[in-house]
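Worked example 3. Consider a protein that binds copper (II) ion.
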Amino acid sequence: MLSRRSFLSASGGTVALMALPATAIRAEAAVAKLIARENAVQLLPSSYPETTVWGYGGQAPGAEIRVLQGDRIQRQFVNQLPKASSVHWHGLRAENAMDGVSGLTQDAVLPGENFEYDLLAEDAGTFWYHSHNRSAEQVARGLHGPLIVDEPAPPDVDRDVTLMLDDWRIDPETGQITLDFDAPHDLSHGGRLGNFISTNGEAAYQLPVKRNERLRLRIVNAANARLFTLGLQGLDGWLMAYDGMPVPSPEPVPETLTLGPGQRVDLFVDVIAEEGEEALLGRIDQSKGYVQASFPVSGSASANRRPAPAPLPPNRAPDLTGLADAAILRLEMSGGAMGGMREAIWKGSSRNAGELMENGQFWAFNGLVGMTETPLARLSLGQVARMTVVNGTVFPHAMHLHGMHFRVLAKDGTPGPLRDTLLTLRGESHEIVFAADNPGRWAFHCHMLSHAASGMMTWIEVTR
Ligand code: C2O
Ligand code: CU
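Given these inputs, the predicted complex is written out as structure tokens:
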């Protein structure tokens, strides 16, 4: 075998290296790899077999990516999967070319190939990263992980805890993910729900805590379609941020809190359960309660609770001063089971329900199924848009806008908190406003990934 020294001289590498400026060498060495690969992991409790997942670093969820606000996220994505893939940085207002949407902002990265992601983490907050090529399959197989951008001055909490909530559809006999990603019933109903629910990839996530300890809980709904309705027990505190964006003043955590797929919240909670008790993050499902994460209490961090927290420092607010003469847009959702969609336009021509169904297409935005040649809207840089989103179906949907956050207008027109994903229930209608302040081609789709795959996908273009 060649030693390193003899390899260098044999290949003439020494000379070539010395000719390169030192900075180029350093930059190359600094880029961390994000390797997507198949791997067997103990996802289910230990009495079950290992599960083969597709994961970043072979793990599901993938390792937390964590940077400081203002830093760049630089990763060499290495695709060791058997299928093409790409990486989307959900919620980051970053450069369009780095948004990771295959077919819109880049080509999918083929097996064995690489792609250099390099994007600015402008906003501090709780984000996540996931595959954006055949996402309904790839995210369900495990290709997602938390992405945390830290504030320059750490907020006053004792612990910072990320909780990725997810569900998996697993055959309990074999322990393997069922490969039914295109099942028409899931596509046309509420999406592909799992039968195994996890927190950070564990069935029974537990974190020992102390009484009066203050935790920052960063909760991410990473599931393909499940809504998580959550409540606290033995924990009390404040809602600090939605979808990575701080609220101007901390709000008491509501009794129940529902997160649609893709949505996040940051909570600051104090452990108020007594020593020896267990504090809980609970999940409510069809009016039954389940433990989503448990926090056994031993010892005490202090004699009393801390005072109420200061708000998190705000991220750059979009400029909505042009709201009075905003571009008026409308997004009408139709289709799905019991939706009575007779026909819609798919790939440029009108199709009846039968033809659509044969092609696994069940949903439409404004009568258009799936990606179109022309965007839903073309906005000029800085323009403000006001969009009515009408859910004319009998299912909930979670509309995610890439590249920009929006505000939901209350009935009286007051703008609500900044969000990147809108949960809309059957028959609901919302008005959202956003500033088209990020140039490029931005995906806008339902984050119930089976719905995105079967029609609920469009895009918005912001031109310079
Ligand atoms: Cu979280 Cu278009 O995705
Ligand atoms: Cu949907």
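Take a moment to read the result before moving on. Helices lie at 4-11, 13-19, 22-30, 135-138, 184-188, 353-358, 449-453. The chain has seven helices and 35 strands.
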